[in-house]
Amino acid sequence: xxxxxxxxxxxxxxxxxxxxxxxxxxxxxxxxxxxxxxxxxxxxxxxxxxxxxxxxxxxxxxxxxxxxxxxxxxxxxxxxxxxxxxxxxxxxxxxxxxxxxxxxxxxxxxxxxxxxxxxxxxxxxxxxxxxxxxxxxxxxxxxxxxxxxxxxxxxxxxxxxxxxxxxxxxxxxxxxxxxxxxxxxxxxxxxxxxxxxxxxxxxxxxxxxxxxxxxxxxxxxxxxxxxxxxxxxxxxxxxxxxxxxxxxxxxxxxxxxxxxxxxxxxxxxxxxxxxxxxxxxxxxxxxxxxxxxxxxxxxxxxxxxxxxxxxxxxxxxxxxxxxxxxxxxxxxxxxxxxxxxxxxxxxxxxx
Length: 351
What we know:
Strand content: 15-25%
Distance between the termini: 34 Å
Strand order of the largest sheet: 6-7-12-10-11
Order of helices and strands: EEHEEEEEHHEEEEHEHHEHEEHEEHE
Helix content: 25-40%
Structural class: alpha+beta
Shape: globular
Radius of gyration: 20 Å
Number of strands: 18
Oligomer: single chain
């Protein structure tokens, strides 16, 4: 277990932003993770858990406490059952399941971060969410000081949310278990329209696993959503805002604002989101509010490839990023009456 003092945290995040931690511990086994958490809790020291750092916005002043970097490893495949250590690189794990001929997470290829973060955020993209395949999450419960196993239902998954996100101080994810599908080398049914179009198939069709994975990686790369140290469009947290889910009444008011602003023929994106609710597109809202690709003149700007990504052009500070985010939130609220919610976790700062 490595321990560093006054340790920079910016290199551990995909934004490459944020000040140092008072202490940084890197744990490579579950036992080391639990020991570090217990030590911090016993001492009353603030604790920040870091996986792949792809969903973190850390303040310029850093973190006054212990940052725990989970660098555990473990990829165990038993038939169609998969268990991943929290520190496993997610996109590598997806590639290995595709190589093994198992379907269920192939459309989540290219998503940066660690396996342990996937249930926290209920990571999803291109028609798949991890909540569809996760069977159990093994975690350390900081309240009971025990290792617990949570079922899928016990994780309380919803859109980009879970019990782990709702109560971030309670559990530290150690391992994640999945139930995948052997579809004789084929993918799960393709659900996302953009993916189906790129594959030249109809929604609901299956395609060869590797073809599905490669297509998603190509789509993500075109939007700057696959990490590349040389491409500042990928110095981001991916999608910075979640897609708003509106009640029928809220959507009707929103639709009226759209017609007022863009004309009676304008139709905002609308997707069913459960009884009495409709999901719309944050990217569409941002673009139609005047924040187009590449927007900004400072060191933090909107990606040149996708309006939903805020990026560090190389010399930004966290405050630069937050100023841009606040400008976007205010502009969308003024234009359409919807308040966007940030997807990344903020540390020591607020949007």
